[in-house]
## 1
Amino acid sequence: MTERPSESGDVSDGRTEGPRLGVAAVVLAAGAGVRFAGERHKLLCEVGGVPLVRRAVDSALAADLDETIVVMGAVDLLEVLPEEVTVLHNEAWEQGQATSLAAAVGYAGSRGHRAVVFGCGDQPGVPAEAWAAVGSADCDLAVGDFGGARRPPVRIGAALWSHLPLTGDEGGRVLMRRRPELVRAIPCEGNPDDIDTLEDLRKWN
């Protein structure tokens, strides 16, 4: 895993230096998107004139959590990401989404954050209000509830980070299955559907 440096050589996050005991937003954007049969990676395709991943990142930023982290891997997204975010390069992305979440919580721990709220870079309809609502939940495990559908964003407190899988395509879902008594569903507005195929993309445009 590598991080995007600032001109001074430190991690560029657009905020003041030093650790903060806060909540970090994490946009997972490292996968190859193998079901998407387009000419370029799906995260670089536009929804409403904006790159898909940028829509997700802008919503996370607008939630005004303490730091916004983007984990990328299969494709370079730097050209479409705002300078305010911290970018982590997950070199183990082929081993599944869990590796990206593990990279994010490892970094968040080094910064002193007490929780992360993660969502996916291919969810263009999750608004900032959903990120903020889940982020402000006073618990270690919370998930967005979109009209009965439990979907990211998901908040995971630091006390649970060591219980996350290190490989595979599941992260927060593993915790929610193993510890259902800890899960708090947070009512959210918006559309949590993700974009996996060209047909999915056409529905948004």
## 2
Amino acid sequence: MAPRAATRAIGGAARLSPQLNVVVAAARRAGRRLLRDFGEVEQLQVSMKGPSDFVSQADIRAEETLRQELGAARPGFAFLMEESGEHGDPDWEWRWVVDPLDGTTNFLHGIPHWAISIGIEKRISESESEIVAGVVYNPASDELFWAEKGAGAFLNDKRLRVSARREMREAVFATGIPFGTIPRKPEFVGVLSRIMPQVAGVRRFGAAALDLAWVAAGRYEGFWELGLNKWDIAAGLVLVREAGGFVTDPAGGDPYAQGMVVAGNTHLHGKLCEVVTEGIAAANAGRAHIGRAHGRPLPKAGDPPWHEPGPG
């Protein structure tokens, strides 16, 4: 059964639908627990999950809290979760897409830039689905970004609109940086070397969900990153779109399946797509030359993504 229409106000202004009420309550509860752990960050037990990718007990506990809260409120919904993967009916009609702690490295270093990200995904057909609502919550700043298809995007009770800047030279963009022993760094360098001379600044704060939320809030003119996971971007996609912006892959297609994301305001999104496409093409051309010189095959469709997913 589809969730009902919006009914309840936040701060006496913007209204939350029943399903968003559920998400906000769950995010705030998990956020309170994360804040307690954040205050004792040096005592967290940390285990290695992969190269340069740490997962803390705080991350795991937050995911358990969210799964319990959301599952109790909507038992028919399936889950896609960062730590524990997929749960529920494989033929789901509705699904929670959850990153319990986006920005894990920031969290573990005591940097108050991390968030809980929850998207609501609706299946349209056997092969199609869409994100219809999402919440990105930073407990450290108590900033709650939320959006629902057709109802707008909000920060707490304030309506959001993307930036109105039209010129690249005035723009600040955000991105994610590949790190450690991650393969295929040339794509990042290729894009960055082309964008830096054209813009006012490039930022890397280490939490893709918040980067997208900040595009929706007009703090950034745009954001790009390649190789993201669905839980990194689900909530952010609907935030940017409901704030009047665009989110696509570099070719203008759907970014959700492959995690190749270019987000921006209406004036600069197209230009950012062009720069990202040019940077990737230049990197691939350079790699082709090196591959021929050393007798190595070029990457092809189906190969691993250009970098391992970042921490959160």
